Amino acid sequence: MSQISVAIVGGDLRFVRLSQILCDQNFNVLIYGLSHPDIPRSAHICTSIDELKDVPYIIGPIPFSKDNTCVFTPLCNTYIPLEQFFRVASNSFVLGSVLTSNLVEAFETHHIRYCDIMKMNEIAILNAIPTAEGAIQYAMQHSEITLHNSRCLVLGFGRCGKILAYKLQSLGTKVAVEARSTTDIAFISTYGYEAVPLNELKTHLGNFDFIFNTIPVVILNKEEIDAFNPEVVYIELASVPGGIDINYCHERGIVHVPAPSLPGIVAPKSAAAIIYQCLLLILRNQGASL
Ligand code: NAP
């Protein structure tokens, strides 16, 4: 295989692990906006963003940007304004993640080929495994009761909701799952979980020790929060803005646990292996000879 150049820009520990995998697999690896002692010596550390020009593949962080202003670089203090990134990436294929509509528009305006890897089911479903394990870890850390026999509500029955409900059930919890589609409600009952249709949610909310949210839209406002069991532990998995009126949640003294980027925190090696599989899939789709 001819050596393929891949640049990693920004990101958390999973991108350090990814740099190790890529170097082991004989890719030509360039790094910008990521600093860590475990980055292999064979990787080229760029000192200027201009070194990214014409690199065929660039892998951006998860999420790509937290503020729609700069690329997310939690492990180093390099500030990468999005405009600078778009300027150098015009001839590259960019693997992005959690791209907001503003970012999508910017990629398109700059005519940059890109994909949002978290929109690819092959990746998002696998990524839901470390996410669910991390959510369970956080639940254990923030409560004084066992998950066994506890009453858990999962909000949303998408990729994360499905895997999380499955793992919670296998730990002996009493699992209820909220969904808005009647098809999902039928599946939820079929799997042996308590089904909670969205329009009946409020009447159920007081029954739980743990609430795990995977819906990236605020559906829990004052009235819903007032219906909570005051001892509930609320774990926020969904991306910004999350599913709850966070200020009112704090005002009411509800335990609110933000749980962003769990794969990168609880299982960076596994998460890196998933991103690597994603890269291979994209390289094949782009006609690269592997
Ligand atoms: P997904 O497969 O799209 O599932 C989203 C769920 O939210 C679906 O059940 C969807 O219902 C529901 N939903 C969306 N909009 C809604 C609304 N307005 N009202 C009611 N329900 C609504 O997404 P996912 O892959 O499971 O990811 C879920 C969230 O977790 C995303 O925000 C993602 O970025 C985040 N995430 C976080 C981590 C972490 O480490 N914390 C890891 C992975 C993903 P329908 O199917 O009916 O639309």
List its salient traits:
about 290 residues, alpha/beta, Rossmann fold, six-stranded parallel sheet, 11 helices, 12 strands, binds NADP nicotinamide-adenine-dinucleotide phosphate
Number of domains: 2
Largest sheet: 6 strands, parallel
End-to-end Cα distance: 6 Å
At the first level of CATH, the class of the largest domain is Alpha Beta
Count of helical stretches: 11
CATH level-3 fold name of the largest domain: Rossmann fold
List the uncertain runs: none
Instruction: Give average pLDDT, whole number.
Output: 96
Under the CATH scheme, which architecture of the largest domain would be assigned?
3-Layer(aba) Sandwich
The CATH superfamily of the largest domain is NAD(P)-binding Rossmann-like Domain
The H/E string reads: EHEEEHEHEHEHEHEHEHEHEHH
Secondary-structure class: alpha/beta
Bound molecules: NADP nicotinamide-adenine-dinucleotide phosphate
State the helical fraction: 25-40%
Cα-based radius of gyration, to the nearest Å:
21 Å
Strand order within the widest beta sheet: 3-2-1-4-5-6
